[in-house]
Write a structure and sequence with these properties.
It contains 5 helices and no strands. By secondary structure, the protein is an all-alpha fold.
Amino acid sequence: MIELKKYLNINGSFSALSGISMILCTCQLNDLFGFDHPYIFPIIGINLLIFAGFVFVTSLKFISNKKLVQAITVMDVLWVLGSLAILIFDLFSLTNIGRLLIGLVAVWIAFLAFKQIKHSK
């Protein structure tokens, strides 16, 4: 359980930092990604903060609830699959740096999902 808690806390921290960055640095991220939609990053950021809260509460109070941990892992896998769809189908004509960042984050989230699966047994 200690390892699972560690990876959930890392997941929650990364999600919270990403969410805050998306809210506070929207203009810079739009430029970096070659994106011209001022509401997308703040919306994703708010949802990441909500997700981070869910992850932290689960980690602190419901670590033994396998269904909640599985729900977090499923959401992580969905994030990775959505990221892959964006990259494979070039859905938003992003810059190369934007595509690279999406890919790196997807690999990181896939790693966290793997560790959560491994340590939730």
